[in-house]
Protein 1
Amino acid sequence: MRKTKRVQEAFLYGLIGLCAAFSAAMLLGIIGYVLVKGIGAVDLEFLTTVTSVLRGTAGIAGNIVNTLLIILLTMIIAAPVGIGAAVYLNEYAKPGKLAAAIEFATEILSGIPSIIFGLFGMMFFGQTLGLGYSLLSGSLTLILMVLPLIIRNTQEALKTVPDSYRTGAAGLGAGKWHTIRTILLPSAMPGIITGVILAVGRIVGESAALLFTAGSGKALPKGLQDLFPKIFRSGGTMTVQLYLSATSEGDFDTAFGIAVVLLVLVLLINLGTKLLAGRFDRNRERR
Amino acid sequence: MKKQVIEKSAQALFLLCAGIAALAVCSITVYMILKGMPALTEAGIRNLLFGTVWKPTAEVPSYGIFYIMLASVAATGLAVLIGVPIGLLTAVFLSEFAGGKLGVCLGSAVELLAAIPSVIYGLIGMMVLNPLMYRLEKLIYAGKTDHQFTGGANLLSAAIVLAVMILPTVISVSTSSLKAVTDHLRSASLALGATKLQTIFQVVLPAARSGILTGIVLGIGRALGEAMAVNMVAGGSVNLPLPFHSVRTLTTQIVSEMGYASGLHRRVLFTVGLVLYLFILAVNLILFRMRKGGEKR
């Protein structure tokens, strides 16, 4: 090999290693920076009170409750609908125009950016249906956004269930609905739950779709009986509050504090899907 | 008989669920068009799409969104220019060099990078990248009086943040398509006397071309649609998109003005949304075509 060529090769090797190191360093840098800047702001008071000038407290309890309520409201509807849609596509639909159209729609839906969902949610749920800025309006918007995620993961999971299960159940005289309920869905459960957790992760990190649908209220609900009325009122999630703190409010302590809480949540969610996926793979090998 | 009723209603229920996804796409499309069209005729298509002056609250308001469209394209293009080479080489490292634990660790790191909320990227961009950019800006434009200083919040900052945000997409899609290239190709090339790097760059990468392109287009879609992070680092005045100019993109235009806009101003923002939606649809259609083409081969 000529010498210039060897130098060239060494340079390329170096570049490849550098790029890989950059991607890893990026993650460590982000986590490290956020922890260093934000860990000081996070304490029990930060997590359990609401920011109030009157009482001199700084906290994000309201935003945490809003985030949880939105996750709950969204998943209650999105999970069954998404799983149902995947069951239809995988178990009922015959290859043809209808199935192709629905697959196409899911694909398009997953490519739409969250700000467009936010605009649509603001116009349709907020104005046309009259929900205004409310947790409900935000949740309805997010349902549309996370549907493709749940549909695709459930479909993948259903595809790994061997066909012998289906023919076996049919041979024993089980109806399709019975087979789905008692055999297919339980076998595909780890994959389905992975999809649901991923969807929760997406909701936790979402901001653009919520800014103009759920709004930015930070009050805590007044007791348990206020939880239901609360969903018709405006409520900002942690991400929305982070955005507002860092921009219009200029309160970077709160912003970094929220960032720490968000990062921890995201890490936990990622770990959860990893563990589940590991279990799922083991199941598959056993078959 | 009863069983048949249950079966039929179960099927109908599942079809209904699947229909919701299709219905959602249709209603979003219809709504975007219905809400986005009126301003086009009110403000004039030419003034709106090709006008360069954005003064919605002036006495004689002007709603030109040409620079805004251009900024979206420029930020996305720059992000791809920065992010794709880094992502692609990382993918090469993951699929060709990293085995065992190192590969798993780096793979998980990339996955985590994808899961970090965009506001956190924005926050770090504001606190770390913008000051660095400001220093660079002061260095470059030292002594020049015709430059309006941005404090580091400019197109270049936005492009860098977007480049990092599209990294995970580019890396994971490219890695899986590189891994899918059959080992026969690699060994044949090595047997012919090519070095490992020659094999990678002249045999493996071309063989994985369609998958890599898919990753790039997915990245373009993500960069075009990102709103919050860009809004936090890009400055926010409507300007010709040059690297050290403070800019507005299609997404940040909506985020920063929807809160207070009313009347025609508000309707123009819906048109901005429609333009963004059409951009995204075009990207998605290209993606769909490419996936279909990939399946056929």
Protein 2
Amino acid sequence: MDIKLTIDGKEVVVPQGTMLIDACRQAGADIPTFCYDPDLKLAGSCRMCVVQPKGWRNLVASCVTPAQNGMVIETDSPDVIESRKVVLELMLSRHKLTCHTCEKDGECNLQDYCYRYGVTESRFDGKVHNLFKDDSNPFIERDYDKCIMCTRCVRACDEITGARAINIMDRGHHAKISTAFDGELVDSPCVFCGQCIMVCPVGALTSKIAAGKGKAAQNDKVLTTCTYCGTGCTLELNVKNDKIVGVTSNRDPELSPVNRGALCVKGRFGWDFVNSPERLTTPLIKENGEFREASWDEALGLAAEKIKGIKEQYGPDSLSMFSSARITNEENYLAQKLMRAAIGSNNVDHCARL
Amino acid sequence: MTNSINELESDAKCIFLIGTNTTENHPVIGYKIRQNVLKNGAKLIVADPRKIELAELADVYIPFKPGTDVALFNGMMNVIINEGLADSKFIENRTEGYEAMAEIVAKYPPEVAAEICGVDAEDIIKAARLYAESEASSVCYAMGLTQHSTGTDNVKSCCNLALLTGNLGKPGTGVNPLRGQNNVQGACDMGALPVVFTAYQNVTNDEARAKFEKAWGVTLSGINGLTLTKTINKAYEGEIKGLIVIGENPMVSDPDLHHVEEALEKLDLLLVQDIFLTETAKKADIVLPGVSFAEKDGTFSNTERRVQRVRKAISNVGDARQDWEILCDLSTRLGYPMSYNTPEEIFEEIRTLTPSYAGISYARLEGEGLPWPCPTEDHPGTPILHKEKFNRGLGLFHAIEYIEPAELPDDEYPIILTTGRSLYHYHTGTMTRKASGLDEFMPSNVVQISSPLAKANNIVDGEKIRVTTRRGSIELEAEVIDGIRENVIFTYFHFAETAANYLTNASVLDPVAGIPEYKVSAARIEKI
Amino acid sequence: MAQEYRVLLEYADKINPESASDYIKVGGYKGLEKARSMNPKDLTEEVKKSGLRGRGGAGFNAGMKWSFVPQYPETKYVVCNLDEGEPGTYKDRIICQKNAQALLEGMAICGYAIGSNQGYIYCRGEYPFVVELLKNAIGNAKESGALGEFNIEVRMGAGAYVCGEETALIESIEGHRGEPRFKPPFPGVEGLWRMPTVVNNVETFACLPFILTKGAEWFAGIGAKSYPGTKVLTLTGDIENATYFEVPTDYLLRDVIYELGGGVKGGKKLKAVQVGGTSGAFIPPQNLDTPIDFDSMGAIGAALGSGAVFVMDETRDIVDIVNRIAKFFEHESCGQCTPCREGTFHCKEIMEKINNGRGSLKDIENLKVLTRVMVKASLCGLGQAAPIPITSTLTHFEYEYLRKLM
């Protein structure tokens, strides 16, 4: 059965069970959210998405309120705007404002919404927490002085990865995200997949590997397939000045069909080998047991000459090739074609068995 | 995989993991299995000598002796047949060879299998029932099943189990090898194998050869080539004189590294194309710098046969060149000119020669990618294989007897050594050892030892010990744990400086696949 | 009619509350017997007809609540809210200590009406002796066979005020953090372990046996029309008789204080009275002639709530009291939703500032904005009600604030 309701004066028809947030978005209203994540259990807790149903005493969180027949909804009534502004001010009151050095600067929901609602500062000042967690792990920075307690990290840890490494500790204003007994991640069931970083709407959780290399918003993102195991996860290489400066993931199932944004520690944090100073940058030829740099022409010429020599002397089957499970299909195709067509042997294999 | 990865998250009602430490080696698949168990109550069976993470969630955990896989499968099938849990309709309509298989399986009642495997017969019975009675059961395996001298038998037994219960060709079922490397599936598909061209067209098949001869304009050899492990042995014997290695590191990944080292030293030419000066590249006469995945365009094919795009994000580092350009240049210099403008052009050529890729184009790969077979441009791809019929028509049961691993413990080497991977490193560590976070987190190798074994040898957690086999020895830190069979030790093969493959056996390979028996070596441990 | 009318507490101190046979001797378990002779639907109708409304504070029609429970699921639960954490409230403890068997009987009646065989009593962590008493009472009732197939387990809370909120209470029984759930779904559809669950207050359940034995019409005829029956009140603060009373619901607040309560302690003048617990409104003396029932209280911007009556004499410092209340809510907010988590904290901060003579008009302005948003936008009743002491005193006692400003 379909539900008919009015949103900001527009009549909208949605299927039964539709939450107001989706109905509102269908009506063209831009509903701000922090805790809402369509892939995770609903929390309904940040109260940023509140809207005003006509005739109701209070505002409702549109992410957890099902649309009902005949509802008349206002998404930007003065009450709604006032509530959102105050919610933002309350968040700001516990959020360390160091946007100038923040990795998420420019890609931060809190920043965006404060801009949108003109919230320049919070009228609610008071004691500031000191929740920064100097966690010794090399992957995840936990700056809970920026945490707005949306709990998306807790839910992602549980519902995507299933590690259940973090949860909420303490109550009220003192509530914070914590491992069991408030220890370090390394002593928890954390597997450093960084799904928490993926869902964090602010800069509370960031990558230590990418830190200082380029603000997320300023990087180009190139969608590609992970270079590690055979799962075939899609990830985004973050590029700045022709350098890889980070990895993020895309949760759109159309673009990330296998993993839907989820990655593992290698995929999310194991990318900086690309920039290693130990990368080979020029051909090498060994002379008297020592390598010396060579030009491509010299190295390839020498290689061709030696291969031809062996082939002439011992026949094509005295040559063999190990192609690679890490290079592309196109390259594997050419490798075996070279072995078969140019050299004339079927001695080509790769490490499928190892 | 016969089926797709995301079926493990919802469609599979029972998942049987054997020889796969999924959460460490295929983490994202591990998450999906875990969620299916936690959210949907899917049943989970885990068979592994080590109590891997997912074993904690398992309905049945079978800590069986390394190398007794066939006995375990036969035991389960014995229960399924005797309790009438087999899918007789499927057997009748879709398979052949049942009687011969059943005859062998009859020799493995659960008690007999349990004795061989060193586990409780009750667990084998419970696992058999769970697998056979669930609406859709999927079996997933990795190198724990295949890296045995009976690797092929193990896989065939796995297929037997699926055929017996009709767990093929439907969502949430299947025989699902979880492949360890990003493009190991693609390398096989592309014919980087000694016996086949692309799409598994045999080099000994005249018709296939004729097709490639026509396309490539040359006469091709019809003699099967050498596998990687045999190449090393032939190099050792002096028959292989020249070896081209592209992005591989046999000096860490291959069995019996002393043997590999001697073999490589005997070569007249070792040409290595890589992004780092690997342990193998250090042995080379000529080293050619290729580029990493971040610098190239192309495609990878994942473990579920999904062909996906790889996209160039940055320029080549230094004077390094695209791997395909290096291959073209070398081929041209060898008198067989190859010239392409882009990887896409190469892919277009692949399509014309590779029936399962024929319908795939770069344009179609924008978005979700496509699982092969995809024979035509309007074909949607094939997430589930064998829906109507098998490649050969009927599914063939194999009658398989249990054969002991090649090297069993004895007085001199009383322990079983088994090797594998860590979540924090990848294969020979060429990349992950140079990834700052991963190497900081796990900078060195350990050997896992059960508490009783440690106690018996007076070894404490964190102590450096020596592990020795008939091939050699390495010294590394002991990690004393509870979740491992008492007489089994485990170590990682990622670390060149304490390479597990100094210990492994190159002399006995699976007779069909040529895979080394990495999961069973007789070993001893000593305090230093 | 300024006197008590005892129904639930008629046999207080005359019977052993743990003893089923004592209770049966004075007519106990007759109501359950009658209920079980009825069709469950008719039973629910009967309760609806009695007009019984929830005694925990929300005042929802009990029979109506039951009627929302779907019939088909096999597993359903009856949960009794005995998380009496409201400061100044102790009526549920009194009911248990005087007439525990009536509570058990009431739960069994509800169980029969909705088709549940399992009840839980969630008892406040500070009442270990009540847990003991209830366990004995349940054992005794089971032994006597009075409860039949109906089972009751007692679960003890751990001191969180918010667990008095029915969905937080459910989370706590399930072993989770005590955090309210968003509604819908309401517990009647998806409650304990995601199964249909009726959560009622002790006093609500304890009314049921009498409604069954004496009839819905009898009950509907007692006290206020829209909120019939009796109400157990607990008097605290500057009052002569700081004790409990059971009165019909049309009883005037003035009579509660000056008749039953014996007046303000020491003959002083009354400054304010807070009804319904810590989150209740502060009622000025000019509103004393209001009946205590749910709707009459609502009409003067107050709430009957749990029935706690906290009396403050003329010497009391309203701002100081509200400051203490603000501290209480800052401590008890579960921390789930932003307005309550941060709002209760900043309410406390501002109240402290004003109370310490460092406040300004701007602070009062900020307090008004903040409390308005907390009421409108908080996830559960705690955050919505926590500002009421502030807003009600800003309405009736603003001069006390202004006096303390810089």
Protein 3
Amino acid sequence: MNEYSEDPFQMDEDLKNDSGGDPSTKNSALLEDITPRYEDPTYHSQSIMYQDREEIRSKIAHIKLEERNAANNNTTEEDEEEVYDEDIDDKFDTEQYNEQLQAQNGNIPHSQGNRIEVKAGAEASPILDEGAELTPPENFAPVINTIYRSSFPQPVNFTFLKKLKLKSILCLIPEDYPLLHQKFLEEQGIKLFQLGMSGNKEPFVKISSELITDAIKIVIDPENQPILIHCNRGKHRTGCLVGVLRRLQKWSLTIIFDEYRKFAAPKERPMDQQFIELYDEREIVKFAKENEFLPLKWD
Amino acid sequence: MSVTVSDHDSKKNLKIISQPPTLRIIPPLNFCPVEKHLYRSGQPSIINQSFLQDLNLKTIIWLASEEPQEDFLDYCSSNNIDIEFVGMMNDYNYQSVNPWDALTEGTIKKALELILNKENHPLLVCCGMGRHRTGTVIGCLRRLQGWNLASVSEEYRRFTGARGGRILVELLIESFDLGLVEVNSEMIPEWLKN
């Protein structure tokens, strides 16, 4: 016995053999034995302080939660700020680009050397119309057939968007659509769907799977195609939506995640990938089958 | 003794899998639509068969320096898919090229002319990983479409993975002489027209 008890790895077994019987009492006995005993009288006050801090933390978390619930559709402060910042940028750009557009319409050549250079190159090509320079929105790509994705389009992208002959646009952010954009949509006869949702922002804000389901219903309806899906950056909310679309196509998850990461880089969110994987597709599959929208076709 | 108890517990918690895993369709690496009936990707293989079936491909432009696998060649020939090997040989000394070599102007011209003939569509452009060679050809196509260079570069870099884009590829895209490309105006795909 003495030899065994010297070996630290044997101690547990020895103890078990001694106490036998109910494992739970045995464990608690063990725990008590190894729990350090604080002789220091301040120890207890410290632990109370710690508890208080914990309580305050959970209270703060609770208040935050309540605030968020009260605001309901609104995003968290952080998210809101970010979105508004970008929106102000949009508006600022809107004015600037408006002037640019007018300048172009009035055939006033743009003063930037770069533009002229590119234009000259474009004119040299045999196929191009009017030598116009096309600027797609950032993160633009076709998804399948005439479903497209991108970041928030800027007025400078309007010429490009015209070429897509869009029937509708699905916007996934809650803020009002800028006036100039609305005017463009009216001119082109493009229908605007807006489903304001917040992206996955750990730990409190989650993307809503109900809203994604609603969005998919709009997107896969041939009546609405060609359709452009966009949010702010075309990374997270749009990425989740496209991920779910890919699941409807039965793509393997690995490739879906790879595509998600490509468009979300360098700000990939594990939560978004988790959302794509865990999204319950039964309702949308039922809807799609009833309306004969599945399988999604490439042409 | 306690070991047997936990063993028993874990058996209790066992779940029966009632459904087999569902069939998953596997697109080739880095796959993305470019325009209607035009796609890009990394090197496809036979595991992508069920995916490729839906695309109804007529032509594959093969920019990789490696040859396709035997079973993939069989798949293509039985589905009447034309594989155009572009850029596997050096045009000057007829030696095979290194995988890291940039495309030559002649190769880009040839690839673009295949793309700009709608008789070849639906068409897939691919190389080893679908990054640089494919990116070069698609980048030049975007310039031909009148995209500005910043947008071309943004798209190219989206497909280049963690190690990012190569400056040499972007220089090649920027400096490629679009005037070299000869096209039959009747064969131009719809998306290139107004």
Protein 4
Amino acid sequence: MTILFEIKKNYELQKVTWKEKDILVNTDCGVKQIRIWKDRALLDWHVRWRDEVGKNSLAVADRMIRTSEGKPWVDMGSEYLTLHDYVEGTHERSGHEKRWGLLIGNMLQAGLELQEEFSSVTKEDHYSFDACLAAIHKLSKEYNELVSVKNSLPEANKRLNLAMELKKASSHVPLPLFDSDTHMNNGGQIFNILFYRGSDDYPEHGYQPLRRLLTEWLKECGPYSLRKLLTCINEHFSLEREQGYLLLAEILTPWELQDCVVQLKNEELAHIVSYVKSFEQDWDFNRILLHCFTDWMDDKRKRVAL
Amino acid sequence: MSHSNETVNYGPILFQYDLYPEKIEEVGKVKKVISRRGTFALKETSLNEEEASWFTHVIHRLSEIGYHQIVPLYPTKYGDYTVQYGNRTYYLMPWFAGGDRFGLTREEAIIEEIGKIHFLTLKEQDFSPEVVDHSFQYLMQRWESRQLEMERFAEESERMPYMSPFELTYLSHFHHMMRMAEDAKRRLKDWYDACHSEKRYRSVLCHGKLSRNHLLYSHHGEPHLLNFEKAVLDTPVRDLAVFFRKAVHLSNWTKEEGGRLLSLYQRHIPLLDEEKSLLVSYISYPEPLFHSVDLYRHQRERYSQIEFVHRLEKRISAMRHIRDFCDLILTPPPPQPLDTNINTDHI
């Protein structure tokens, strides 16, 4: 009741009823989504990057609807409430690389511009190859199914070293912040707009979320479409120089190995086979992703040389 | 609900206002958007991001300094006052159907309102000889190069074995046009000299595109200015020159009417002598005539010969009105009548 009252009062809406308690409301301006925030700094980040990305009208993030006083949130005492448009369904991917490229390019640009200001609200995963190695040695003593995982270790080590070299060479280059829970399914469609549902999570410092998104894209749309997507992102945010090398470093980092180890540690034997299978798939897809990206970068370099 | 192409095309823009149109009509340069939440005017412009930001700032600034006779902008649900879509920029305003007007004519209302804006935004600039020199030289060079172009066209026309009616009309007025241009340049020099001797220069917020189409009446009959897309900080003369150049084309124009409109303006902000020189210089330079020539040279297929001739003659006639009006602007005001009731006992 309090939430509905606050929404009605602060957004000057005539009609507000629950569509899905604490998540969605029906209003005279359509269905809106509610988000509750406890961390003001995190909220500020989410307001800013959404606003930056929403400067164009073709590919936008779910910006905070302003209150009648023009504020992006309602102060509820110990927490803040924000109201967003709610768009059901998903936006098509293959064939719409231009629009997705605009969205991702703008997200990267916003993340780079805001990275200094919001460096305190980020989260970052650290990769420990030694920890992976130790865990796999221990697990392989108990289970025989980990052959493919064990076999991948030399290449994983090589890739990681290469990634670290690349990162070291570009250590002076700032990394963009990126919404951590980035997935293709977050993109909806309304009035021919790519409407992106952002998360309420802490942003990640670097290219890991983008790597995940590119892998998803590759799995669903294939290498040809992925290359088109990279070209379209590049029109709005250059991936040809240092930022491209930093993305390459992230693609080289064998995150799939660490993910697999985390899952193996926590699960029963019954699930191990399926995890190993999933690891093998991810490993192969990441190889294709790496191949596609380096090919794309080479192609760009050749064009410059020509 | 209409499902025309327009509704589909404007969807991404109107979505930002949570407007779901039942009908969209094209009225002049705006779209009339009829929805359950009311009727609105959607304007499409070519403003870039920086220009759109300045435009929004101007509207807010006018409101802050207490000027409310402007057609307001509605913010989107995200708090933006303009919407970028592709390479176009849009903004939304209330629809002014127009009601009964108070006593003033449209021209009187425009000059009154612009006088108020100029008064509220008037700023005595720190005198900078470089800025004045630059403005003077820039305009002088532009005018001289335009004169050269026109001289070239006159020479080309004279070489023709058979002159067209337009060329004939142009040539018969050519010397007169050049005299007008020389007079305008002389007045510009007067302004330049006066600026240097008085060491002063005033700026105001200029509307930039004053026109009778940019004034609407609310349903209470109050005049509201709109379209501040070309607003700029400049001499007040900039707006006045645009206004009077258009006003001389009105059927009821007389120099006395011009004088009366200028007096209405000067109730808010009396012009300095050098600003009067600048106004005379701006409006007496025969650019509208040169523009007719440009149109003839570059878009000859657009009108017939007779239409071109008619257009040029109409503008020559307007320039005559301007010349008379300029004499009036430069005429010093009559001395104040002596008060016959002054008590002279104490002298």
